[in-house]
């Protein structure tokens, strides 16, 4: 049987720096756990524009469609701000998401013990937190028609339309139930069925899909109450599924319960391929951080945890994903901090590569 395939797109700014640390971990799994990947690497974003005059070459797009998972660093930078909208680095990322039809965006909020003091909430509210928000990514009010700013009488009116088909709700609900099956078997669906027809349909379809997953405990909550509950007692949740707009807000809220941008991974999943694996793109939430690029200051943990998500959700290696997460927890418990995580006095920051090496050392110690 051939090895699972990975396309690595480091991108711009700190992207290549953090991805270099992920490569150390991929190599470690190949050498020590017999988990070998066929890895190819390509350009996306500003560096692709520099070489090809486009932020995503057609050949790269075709490769992304073929592999088992894509791992992306970050794109963009001030050098490219002057470019026409159609060739800006971010267009490369948007094209990947669109053409791979990645409709389920997964944003975990996970609190590592050593960083519980970093949260703006009380330590006992966030310690041990591990939840996942699944946001519908390709439909809803950001895409619905009609949209625009129109003349109406003697004033203008701005219009956006919340629109969801049953099949769009069905497929993202299935992704969320599948995730819940791999986690704590609890799913909370959030909408505004009290005031929005699209919310009523959302609730009906999610309930219907739930009949195929009798092991998962399904609950429903209005999204505004959900925001309140997320800040009051987030540990009541395991997986949350919600639409594009509410998910945009709730995933940012949940992610920041646990601290720095340099720690936040994400995944975007699409329909299952022939081999049963979902189309998948894994990437840190942060951008290319031009202010610290090239200085060895970037925190590689968000990108490393994105790879851990790939292990769990594309390759069914939940135990190996947990091994990576435990290694991250262990280096943080030892007091290692990249500059973005400094808070305690007298702590000297470690560099990007020192953090990566320390995580590999903890993986080694886990054997
Ligand atoms: P950013 O996420 O790049 O940086 C925001 C702040 O967080 C900066 O101070 C940065 O130094 C810090 N930071 C981010 N990641 C870090 C890490 N891993 N370790 C330590 N510190 C980190 O957001 P921005 O400054 O708004 O955008 C910079 C560029 O990145 C822009 O061109 C933007 O368009 C692009 N961007 C790309 C993506 C993506 O590729 N998915 C996402 C957001 C922004």
From TrEMBL:
Residues binding Mg(2+): 224, 248, 252
Subcellular localization: Cytoplasm
A cellular-component GO term for this protein: cytosol
Domain of life: Bacteria
GO molecular function: 3-isopropylmalate dehydrogenase activity; magnesium ion binding; NAD binding
Residues under site feature: Important for catalysis: 142, 192
Chain positions recorded as substrate binding sites: 97, 107, 135, 224
Cofactor: Mg(2+); Mn(2+)
One Pfam family cited in the UniProt record for this chain: Iso_dh
Pathway as given in its UniProt record: Amino-acid biosynthesis; L-leucine biosynthesis; L-leucine from 3-methyl-2-oxobutanoate: step 3/4
E.C. designation(s): 1.1.1.85
UniProt-listed Gene3D superfamilies: Isopropylmalate Dehydrogenase
Record-annotated Isopropylmalate dehydrogenase-like domain positions: 5-359
Function noted in UniProt: Catalyzes the oxidation of 3-carboxy-2-hydroxy-4-methylpentanoate (3-isopropylmalate) to 3-carboxy-4-methyl-2-oxopentanoate. The product decarboxylates to 4-methyl-2 oxopentanoate.
UniProt protein name: 3-isopropylmalate dehydrogenase
Organism: Rhodalgimonas zhirmunskyi
């Amino acid at each position: 049987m051939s090895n699972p395939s990975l396309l690595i797109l480091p991108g711009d700014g700190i992207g290549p720096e953090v991805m270099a640390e992920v490569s150390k971990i991929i190599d470690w799994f190949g050498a020590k756990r017999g988990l070998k990947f066929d890895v190819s690497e390509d350009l996306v974003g500003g560096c692709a524009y520099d070489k090809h005059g486009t932020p995503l070459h057609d050949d790269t797009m075709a490769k992304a469609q073929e592999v088992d998972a894509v791992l992306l660093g970050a794109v963009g930078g001030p050098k490219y701000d002057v470019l026409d909208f159609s060739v800006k680095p971010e267009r490369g990322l948007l094209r990947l998401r669109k053409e791979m039809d990645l409709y389920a965006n997964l944003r975990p909020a996970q609190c590592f013990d050593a960083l519980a003091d970093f949260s703006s909430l009380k330590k006992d509210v966030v310690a041990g937190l591990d939840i996942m928000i699944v946001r519908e990514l390709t439909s809803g009010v950001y895409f619905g028609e009609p949209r625009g700013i129109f003349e109406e009488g003697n004033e203008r009116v701005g219009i956006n339309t919340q629109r969801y088909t049953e099949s769009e709700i069905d497929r993202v609900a299935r992704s969320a139930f599948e995730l819940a099956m791999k986690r704590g078997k609890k799913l909370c669906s959030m909408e505004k069925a009290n005031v929005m027809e699209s919310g009523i349909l959302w609730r009906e379809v999610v309930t219907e899909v739930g009949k195929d997953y009798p092991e998962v405990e399904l609950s429903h909550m209005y999204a505004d109450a959900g925001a309140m509950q997320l800040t009051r007692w987030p540990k009541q949740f395991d997986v949350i599924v919600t639409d594009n707009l509410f998910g945009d807000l709730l995933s940012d809220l949940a992610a920041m319960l646990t601290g720095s941008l340099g720690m936040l991974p994400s995944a975007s999943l699409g329909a299952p391929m022939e081999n049963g694996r979902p189309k998948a793109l894994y990437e840190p939430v942060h951008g290319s951080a031009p202010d610290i690029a090239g200085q060895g200051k970037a925190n590689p943990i968000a990108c490393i945890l994105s790879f851990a998500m790939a292990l769990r959700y594309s390759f069914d290696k939940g135990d190996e994903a947990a091994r990576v997460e435990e290694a991250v927890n262990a280096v943080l418990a030892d007091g290692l901090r990249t500059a973005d995580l400094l808070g305690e006095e007298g702590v000297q920051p470690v560099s990007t590569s020192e953090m990566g090496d320390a995580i590999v050392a903890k993986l080694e110690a886990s054997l």
